[in-house]
């Protein structure tokens, strides 16, 4: 088969690393990068270090409103699909790139395969929820990361086209977890190498809800600064100035600000951390895979499977709430494996072979 895969944002590159490796064993894959994430440390580094083939097309579309971005991608992707005439289009997750690619394909009768389908937050206030629901419904095959997600799709009448295969991100995580961490490339804002302390907390925080003004991020950083070890905070480019300003103004000497790190460094920073504080959907799952306790700063649950035995707890962007949640002890039941066995990509390819 000829399959066009469309990616655009950091978590999609990480999923595509496992997906493309498997797809290319038996199919011809054309890779399209929409350009949503474009900095070297948000995009190119993942292609280099994860062995993702170079994109065949890069649309260079980033920024603007949701409508502007989606509209630009729609027309760009449609042109590519008309030229390449693939047998199917494959997309990951829930970004504007996912939605635009799915819509462009289905309208010209190209079957859509959606990986990481079926997740629901239950609110359309979350822009990704709209992308998720729409893409799930226009797809021919929906691959879910968990049984919960599959149940959501069954409830919406999509059971016949939906399969629970495990989380493809887990495939990538396992692939990198056992590689040696011998050459970390973690840089501070001035480009100097950071030496990671032997004991540290790891943090990422980039969602609009936590970074739209100084207040929530200040609360989170004040909590982290008061802990018994330093915090390594890998800062998303859009929060660079705010994070720096807050740390300087508050004199937060226990926070180590870094540029975004590559995937290998992210996996190892997660695996060796005392605990993790994040608002990232993907990173909370990786904390769970690594058995490292996580506090998730948001008002709603994203991966309900992780919210067991204090392994992942919701906290408000409030110093006291975060410290209280961090002080709890987690309990790990090793037999509880809601994200599959790390062979999602193989299962996806088997089902594609069967169904097409
Ligand atoms: N990640 C990374 N470098 C960083 C921060 C995160 O490689 O500096 C990885 C992280 O391990 C996870 C993914 O990026 O696999 C999460 O992406 P992001 O937080 O951008 O998206 P979300 O999970 O919120 O959709």
Strand order of the largest sheet: 3-2-1-4-5-6-7
The ordered string of helix (H) and strand (E) elements is EHEHEHEHEHEHEHEHHEHEHEHEEHH
Instruction: Please give the count of helices.
Output: 14
Low-confidence stretches: none
Bound molecules: uridine-5'-diphosphate
Helix % is 40-55%
What general form does the structure show? globular
> Total strand count, please?
13
Give the rounded overall mean pLDDT.
96
Distance between the termini: 9 Å
Largest sheet: 7 strands, parallel
Strand content: 15-25%
Evaluate the radius of gyration.
20 Å
Keywords:
seven-stranded parallel β-sheet; binds uridine-5'-diphosphate; 356 residues; alpha/beta; six-stranded parallel β-sheet; globular
Q: Would you give an account of this structure?
A:
This protein is an alpha/beta fold. The chain has 14 helices and 13 strands. The chain has helices at residues 10-26, 44-49, 66-84, 96-107, 127-138, 147-155, 168-177, 208-211, 214-225, 240-250, 263-272, 281-290, 319-327, 344-355; strands spanning 2-7, 28-33, 57-58, 88-92, 112-117, 141-144, 162-164, 200-204, 230-234, 255-258, 276-278, 294-297, 312-315. Strands 3-2-1-4-5-6-7 form a seven-stranded parallel sheet, with helices on both faces. It has a six-stranded parallel sheet with strand order 10-9-8-11-12-13, with helices on both faces. Helix 10 (240-250) links the parallel strand 9 (230-234) and strand 10. Helix 1 (10-26) packs across helix 7 (168-177), helix 3 (66-84) crosses helix 4 (96-107) and helix 9 (214-225) runs parallel beside helix 13. The protein is globular. 48% of the residues are buried. The site of uridine-5'-diphosphate (UDP) has 14 residues, from helix 1, helix 11 and helix 12.
């Amino acid at each position: 088969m000829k399959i066009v895969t469309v990616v655009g944002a950091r978590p999609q590159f990480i999923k595509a690393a496992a997906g493309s490796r498997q797809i290319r064993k038996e199919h011809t894959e054309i890779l399209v990068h929409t350009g949503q994430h474009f900095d070297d440390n948000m995009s190119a580094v993942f292609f280099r270090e994860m062995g993702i083939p170079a994109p065949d097309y890069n649309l260079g579309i980033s920024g603007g409103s949701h409508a502007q971005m989606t509209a630009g991608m729609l027309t760009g992707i449609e042109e590519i699909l008309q030229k390449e005439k693939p047998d199917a289009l494959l997309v990951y997750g829930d970004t504007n790139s996912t939605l635009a690619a799915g819509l462009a394909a289905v309208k010209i009768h190209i079957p859509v395969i959606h990986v990481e389908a079926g997740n629901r937050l239950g609110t359309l206030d979350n822009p990704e929820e709209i992308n998720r629901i729409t893409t799930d419904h226009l797809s021919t095959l929906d691959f879910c990361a968990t049984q919960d997600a599959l149940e959501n799709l069954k409830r919406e009448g999509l059971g016949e086209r939906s399969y629970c295969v495990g989380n493809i991100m887990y495939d990538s995580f396992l692939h990198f977890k056992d590689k040696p961490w011998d050459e970390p490339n973690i840089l501070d804002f001035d480009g100097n190498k950071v030496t990671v302390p032997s004991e540290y907390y790891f943090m990422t925080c980039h969602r609009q809800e936590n970074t739209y003004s100084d207040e929530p991020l200040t609360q989170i950083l004040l909590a982290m600064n008061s802990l018994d070890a330093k915090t390594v905070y890998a800062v998303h480019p859009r929060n660079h100035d705010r994070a720096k300003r807050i740390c300087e103004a508050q004199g937060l000497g226990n926070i180590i600000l870094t540029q975004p790190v590559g995937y290998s460094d992210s996996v190892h920073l997660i695996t060796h951390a005392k605990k993790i504080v994040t608002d990232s959907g993907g990173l909370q799952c990786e904390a769970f895979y690594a058995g490292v306790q996580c506090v998730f700063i948001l008002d709603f649950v994203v991966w309900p499977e992780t919210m067991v035995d204090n392994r992942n707890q919701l906290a408000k962007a409030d110093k006291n709430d975060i410290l209280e949640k961090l002080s709890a002890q987690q309990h790990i039941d090793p037999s509880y494996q809601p994200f599959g066995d790390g062979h999602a990509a193989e299962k996806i390819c088997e089902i594609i072979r069967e169904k097409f």
